Task: structure prediction
Amino acid sequence: MKAKGMNKVMKKNMEKTNVMRILDQKKIHYTSHCYVDTGVISGIDVATVLNQNPSQVFKTLVTLGNSNTNYVFLVPVLKELDLKKAAKSVGEKSIGMLKSKDLLPLTGYVHGGCSPIGMKKQFKTVIDVSASNYDAIIFSAGKIGYQVETTLKELKQVLRFELEDVIVD
Result:
């Protein structure tokens, strides 16, 4: 309850991120959420502070395939990416997580503030199929402390993605 009220107060002073500007430019309907200066670290903490269902809050993970190709996966913050399922979903023999030090130069985003929208380059993106269970999903707005919420239908207008089962059972 406290987190929800705090979120409303912070929205009034919230700055626009590049992700929000892209969504505005494309006339994509979204809701913004902010949790700046709350000491939040994990995706589960983000869901708690925003008073949202953690199954509906997604983290953005960047991987590197065996073929030296990068891929982006969105998975619920409560779950882990199944690397075997993820590799299969993108036609790779294997994939691994991108090293943290390589994230900013590759995507333009820092760890904890990585969004699938507005990366330096568009990478093949897979969203866990569980996203289709919700009217909207919440994910990073491209800056630590900022999240956006939108429907998959709206997201399709600005991001090419596939829905696949890519989480650990």
